[in-house]
Amino acid sequence: MLHEYRDIISKLKVENAHFAKIFERHNELDDIVTEVEEGRQHMDDLELEKLKKEKLRLKDEAYRMILDYKKEHNL
């Protein structure tokens, strides 16, 4: 997720527990979605869409935090 911000993500994961939690949950959801889409796990379409929406919401929140960090640190 957001690989172009790898350095900032590393710092935020250490400095901000909320960011770390968001990042971890996003990665968990990404793994689940991949498992379902590749047929290794079964889930109905509605549940899969709910997980995808949660994953996107978390990504958006993490991205906002990254942009705030960049602004605060003049990066």
Q: What distance separates the N and C termini?
A: 19 Å
Strand content: under 5%
Mean pLDDT: 96
Percent helix: over 70%
From the helix content, strand content and strand pairing, which structural class follows? mainly alpha
Which shape, going by the Cα principal axes? Answer: elongated
Number of strands: 0
Continuous helix count: 3
Largest sheet: number of strands, sense, barrel closure? none
Low-pLDDT sequence parts: none
Rounded to an integer in angstroms, the radius of gyration calculated over CA atoms is 14 Å
Secondary-structure element pattern, one letter each = HHH
Determine the oligomeric state from the structure.
Answer: single chain
Key terms for this structure?
79% helix; 75 residues; mainly alpha; 3 helices
Q: Can you put this structure into words, describing what you see?
A:
It is a single chain. With 75 residues, the protein is mainly α. Helix content is 79%, strand content 0%. Helix 1 (6-15) crosses helix 2 and helix 2 runs antiparallel to helix 3 (45-72). The mean pLDDT is 96.
